[in-house]
Automatic annotation (TrEMBL):
Highest classification ranks of the organism: Bacteria, Pseudomonadati, Bacteroidota, Sphingobacteriia, Sphingobacteriales
Species in which this protein is naturally found: Sphingobacterium phlebotomi
Alphabetized InterPro entries for the sequence: Bact_OuterMem_StrucFunc, OMP_bac, OmpA-like, OmpA-like_sf
Chain intervals with Basic and acidic residues compositional bias: 53-66
PANTHER family, per the entry: LIPOPROTEIN YIAD-RELATED, STATOR ELEMENT OF FLAGELLAR MOTOR COMPLEX
Protein name: OmpA family protein
UniProt keyword annotations, A-Z: Cell outer membrane, Membrane, Signal
Length: 460
């Protein structure tokens, strides 16, 4: 810096040589002034760079959500959780070098939820056009598929609307099942809204697509107009009544004394700073009991959520948003059945395959909601420390064969690292990747892709 300043000073002196004596006296002042001005210019450039970065972080996700920019896979349509472009290889190389594959797992240390093993339906809306209503839904309200710059995948956006939304694949529930989805919201928390309501409704209605004009109001008067047995999980964004809340509400029309409502104060999940950040919702039914998790936190545990031998025929979303500033978004709906029995299956048969270990799109970074299934696998392995285990990664067919092969290898190794570093597994472990070479389901559907994205364990 000083060398450049000095050269510039000399240049100025040569221009004004006729006034050399004057400049001789002022030389030091000019040199100092030039140095100060140059420093200020450098500082301005740094400020601009910082502002540009902050502007990107603070972009309004709502506007970004309306963007039609889409990632392209082999089929020319938007890809699912395994979507990635060729330059993302460096991203998951960096994940591995930095230990990023295990980042965040410990914040789910209280997470006891384990997904059902057999995937009945998986919907990430990758096969729906941006701007359209999901093709597999029946509805009376308004919604559309959108995507964002700041989070992966397609999302269903509920803005100012009131109505029922019935996914055709959420029906005929068995006694034991799990249901998961990602939920986001965007409200003006400082302003009152008559209604900011998103609810998931399970019922034994005889025709799942009937009563699409049902008003899912908050009182039992409304609840019992849908079906003889009903359970709703409400997510409310209002704070005027002391909320926001996550609420479980049961209605039994035959005996009103059996009705109940239980609230979880959800300020840690639904607040101004958490807007446009996904919350992973995990729901499990085992007999009469239903548990609900928001991220790692168990928010509802209803041991008598259903009467004995109630057959749930369907689930629907009921949304009531009052203003243009009230927004809910959902994605990655996963419906699976089967009571998990990881330990016995792994130890008795010597093999276990799961699609419940999930990864950030196009990388080997394990999502923290995989904690529950990883812990069960770790506990099984720690009871048989003398046995070695082979860990095999599999992907769906999105992307090139070569990249999928490398991705499956890195994901298998990420699981090995997590078992060793996060759970203290000391068994000898080797890893292998098979890419997309061994599918177990049709790669042309989101559900099939979800089944093919799996991790296999083989004991020796």
């Amino acid at each position: 810096m000083k060398t450049r300043v000095l050269l510039l000073s000399v240049f100025l002196f040569s221009i004004f040589s006729a006034e050399a004596q004057i400049w001789k006296n002022m030389g030091k002042k000019i040199e100092k002034k030039i140095e100060e001005k140059a420093s200020r210019r450098v500082e301005r450039q740094i400020d601009k760079a910082i502002d540009k970065g902050l502007d990107k972080i603070e972009e309004a996700p709502k506007e970004a959500g309306r963007s039609s920019k889409k990632s392209k896979g082999k089929s020319g349509t938007q890809t699912g959780n395994d979507a990635y472009e060729e330059n993302t290889m460096s991203e998951f190389d960096m994940d591995q070098e930095s230990g990023g594959s295990n980042a965040g797992l410990q914040r789910y240390s209280k997470f006891t939820f384990v997904p059902g093993e057999e995937i009945i339906a998986f919907d990430d809306f990758s096969q729906d056009a941006v701007g359209d209503l999901p093709a597999s839904w029946v509805s009376t309200g308004t919604s559309e598929v959108v995507n964002f710059d700041h989070v992966e995948g397609n999302w269903v956006w509920f803005n100012k609307t009131k109505g029922n939304f019935v996914p055709e694949y959420l029906r005929d529930f068995p006694e034991n099942f799990t249901l998961e989805f990602d939920l986001m919201y965007d409200f003006e928390f400082g302003k009152y809204s008559h209604a900011r309501l998103f609810s998931l409704v399970f019922s034994d209605i005889s025709n799942p697509e009937a009563k699409l004009d049902w008003d899912g109001g908050p009182t039992y008067f409304y609840l019992q107009k849908l079906a003889p047995n009903y359970l709703s999980i409400y997510f409310t964004g209002n704070s005027s009544d002391g909320g926001p809340y996550i609420t479980g509400k049961k209605a039994v029309s035959a005996n009103k004394d059996l009705n109940f409502s239980t609230d979880y104060l959800a300020k840690e999940f639904i607040n101004a700073s958490g807007a446009n950040s996904p919350i992973h919702i995990s729901i499990s039914r085992t007999g009469r009991r239903m548990q609900v998790f928001a991220n790692e936190e168990k928010v509802l545990d209803m041991t008598n959520a259903f009467e004995k031998e109630v057959k749930l025929t369907s689930a629907r979303f009921f949304v009531n948003n009052h203003t243009e500033q009230d927004n809910y978004y959902i994605s990655n709906i996963r419906y699976a059945v089967g009571k998990p029995d990881t330990r016995n299956k792994l130890l008795s048969s010597g093999t276990f395959t799961t699609s419940a270990i999930t990864f950030t799109s196009g990388s080997a970074q394990i999502k923290p909601e995989s904690y529950g299934i990883l812990k069960e696998i770790a506990d099984a392995l720690k009871s048989e420390t003398g046995k070695s285990v082979m860990i095999i990664g599999h992907t769906d067919s999105d992307g090139s064969d070569a990249l999928n092969q490398q991705l499956s290898e890195k994901r298998a190794d990420a699981v090995r690292q997590a078992l060793e570093q996060e759970f203290g597994v000391s068994n000898a472990m080797t890893t292998e990747g098979k890419g997309e070479s061994a599918p177990v389901a049709d790669n042309s559907t989101p559900s099939g892709k979800a089944q093919n994205r799996r991790v296999e364990f083989i004991l020796n």
